[in-house]
Structure formats: C-alpha cells, structure tokens
Amino acid sequence: MSRPIPIGYALANLPRYTSYPTAPHFGPLGEAEYRGWLAGIRPEDPLSLYLHIPFCRSLCWYCGCHTAVTRSAERIARYGAALRKEASLLAEALPEHAGIASVHLGGGTPSTLGAAGLRALFTELRATFGIRRDAELAIELDPRVVDEEIVAALADAGITRASFGVQDIDPAVQRRIGRVQPEEMVARAAAWLRAAGITAINFDMMYGLPGQSAAQVAATARFAVEQGADRVAVFGYAHVPWMKPHQNAIRTEDLPGALERLQQAETAEQVLVAAGYQAIGLDHFAKPGDPMAIAARDGTLRRNFQGYTTDAAPVLLGLGASSIGGIEAAGYAQNEPNERRWVAAVEAGELPIRRGRAVTAEDRLRRHCIERVMCDFALDLAALPPALVAGVRPALAPLEADGILDLTPDLLRVTAAGRRHVRHVAACFDAYLGTGAGRHSAAV
C-alpha cells in the first residue's frame, strides 16, 4: 500500500494553468500588435469565441470572476450594443478562416442581457463570423436568472450546452456565500432547457466553502446525478480576498482546512464515479458517452480559460470587458477590464486590447507539457528536447519520492494518489513561477 501524500502539497498556492504563461505574467499589449497576430490566422484555422458579460443582479461572496452588480436596463443595453459592435470590428479584422467552431458565453450572468439582447447578439455573430453547423454554443447560467422567455431565446439562438452554477444545495451553505437558490429552482430551470431541446447540461459545484462539510458536498453531487447532469465540475473555492475584496464577507475561520478540502473533493469523486461518471482531469466528471469523456480517453482533451474543454480550435477570440483570448502561434490578449473604458474604445471603432503576452517557442513547448500533464496525467518525455527534460528532473524528483508521480527515462505518469496534486507536477514545467507579483489559490 502506498503511503499518504504529505499534507503540505495541499497547502501550497499554485496557478490553475488555464494558460501558459499565466495571466500574472501578462504585460501591456496594443491594438496594432494584436491586429498583426490576427493577420497570421490561416485559412484552415477554425476559431472559437468567448464573450464575457460581466453583470449580475446580486453579488455572490465566493465569486472570483470579473463582475459588476446592476439592474440598469440602459447600462446592460449599451453593453450589449458594444458587444455586437466589437464582434463586427473583430470580424472585419480577420483574414480568411475556417469558421466558428465554438461559442461560449460567460460572466457574470449572461442571461442579464435579456431575451431580446441574446437574440440580437447571436443574430450579429451569425451574420459576421460564419458559425459552423457543428459548432458547440454554450452558456453559463445562474438558475435565479432563468425563465421560460430566456430559455426560448436560448433555443432560438441555437444554444447546445448550458452550465448551471449550483455550488452547494444546502441552504445554510448558500446563506454563508450570499447565493440562495432552492433545489426546486435549479431542477425547474434544467427541465425548461430540456423541454426546449437544450439537452446537454452541466452542473458546477464547489467544495471548500464556509461551513461546508463532506456530507453536504456528497448531497450536492447526488443532486447532480439525480438531475441527470451530463458533466459535473467540482471546483475548489479559491479564497483570494487580496484580489476580490468582497470575499472578505467570508470569514477565513469558517473555511475548511486543507485536510477537510481534500476529503470533500474525494467525497464528491466517490459519489460521481459510483454513479457511473468518468473522472476527467483535476476536477471534471462526465457521463461516458459525453464528448468530454471521449476526448479524455482518446487524448484530445484540452485546457483553456474556461477550464477543461473539447475545443481544439487554435484560435480563441475574447470579446467583452476583461475577456482573454489566445492564438496558439502568437500569444494571449486581454481586453480592457474597465467596462466604461471598454465601451468607449469599441464605440470609437477600436479593438479594445490592453494586456497580453507573446509566446516564444519555449513557451509553446512548456505549454504543451503543462496541458498534457493536466489533461492526461502523463507526458511522453522521449518526445521532448533532452535539455528540457534534464532541466525539470530535479523538480520532479521530490514528487516521485512522495508518490505523486512515476518516472522512467521516457515517460512521466501521475499516480492515482497524486492526481489531486497534478498542479504541482505542472508547476515543474513553469519557468516563470515565483517571478513577478502573481499570487495564486490553494492547490487543492
């Protein structure tokens, strides 16, 4: 029997590795340079779009996203109009390409655009970009901001997948995080979607929340199973009040410790795997026939700013305030995060790029290593430059000694016991870790 992984690994703070280099290492990036990157897109390249809608009707205290609380119809309408104009400006800047393979609306709460706003947005996207027939069109939904009118608009827009933020179904935990949504509300919204033909439904749940127990995490996982979720993401709460001051509403002393977080994550996995879901990567689970489960089995799973994904497009274009995109051959680009400045730039006819990072050949190589480790829990060392392998072996050796991974001259493989700590393995390939001002969330 293998010995337990030292608890110190769960205490460390590390990037989530949804990009490499990671966002703390981005710097100023101008519109002209970004347009040059766009010009390098090839005719055979499919594209993906991420659209950020930053508005929420109320503030969830756990949230780490770029959001703003508003009920101003005028403010939301102006943002929606600017988002449509940005789509038009971006489409004009693109060379010939192979069409849009994926669209993801995130936030915030995208449904705050309203039924008319959602219809107008997708009408613009189809008119300007050329969405492929087989494209996945996905949206993140807050069950509290879903009604039958919104669902009808999503169906008209051609949405194929929806992700519900469930977090925890226990009312006591919900009150501690400022997000009360009864089980019946979630179930009703999911039923509306299925009745409208939107049958691919994901549930996002969390562990490590204030006052949360392993039993409550298990109950939420069972609820996801009972509701027939195709995918379940089990995210660890990231307490980063130095980045998100509203998280100070959550008392640090109410948070589970590192060992409790581990137990909660393992409890969720036990429930979901016992129900027939396939464990995928660090924190996802899917029914065996789901495209994500198939991608995990055949080695084509990817990782981007939305986490684990089946999207294989080499170009991800970000639209909306603060959104981040990436062009595999060139680098990462982030829009102006300030809503008013973003709107003003778009209305002036500018592509509102403000930050980013060009990638080098070494960055691309290390990004490949990190992505395969995060997605496959394995890496073919024989296919890598010997100098890179020699450079990371000293960092890998302690992880091997502690049972997190197995090493041969040609192969790195994360052990079953070490999978929860895969970010430590990925970090061995990060040449920038420890440099700059970046602070990160708990590794488990």
TrEMBL record:
GO terms for molecular function: 4 iron, 4 sulfur cluster binding; coproporphyrinogen dehydrogenase activity; coproporphyrinogen oxidase activity; metal ion binding. Its cofactor is [4Fe-4S] cluster. Residues 41-283 form the Radical SAM core domain. Its EC number is 1.3.98.3. SMART domains: Elp3. One of its GO terms (biological process) is protoporphyrinogen IX biosynthetic process. GO terms for cellular component: cytoplasm. [4Fe-4S] cluster binds at C56, C60, C63. It is found in: Cytoplasm. The keyword Metal-binding applies. It comes from the Bacteria. Binds 1 [4Fe-4S] cluster. The cluster is coordinated with 3 cysteines and an exchangeable S-adenosyl-L-methionine. Pathway: Porphyrin-containing compound metabolism; protoporphyrin-IX biosynthesis; protoporphyrinogen-IX from coproporphyrinogen-III (AdoMet route): step 1/1. It holds the Pfam family Radical_SAM. Keywords: 4Fe-4S, Cytoplasm, Iron, Iron-sulfur, Metal-binding, Oxidoreductase, Porphyrin biosynthesis, S-adenosyl-L-methionine. S-adenosyl-L-methionine 2 binds at Y62, C63, G64, G108, T109, Q167, R179, D204, A238. It catalyses: coproporphyrinogen III + 2 S-adenosyl-L-methionine = protoporphyrinogen IX + 2 5'-deoxyadenosine + 2 L-methionine + 2 CO2. The keyword Cytoplasm applies. InterPro entries: Aldolase_TIM, Coprogen_oxidase_HemN, Coproporphyrinogen-III_oxidase, Elp3/MiaA/NifB-like_rSAM, HemN_C, rSAM, rSAM_sf. S-adenosyl-L-methionine 1 binds at Y50, G107, E140, I324. Belongs to the anaerobic coproporphyrinogen-III oxidase family. Monomer. This is Coproporphyrinogen-III oxidase. The gene is hemN.
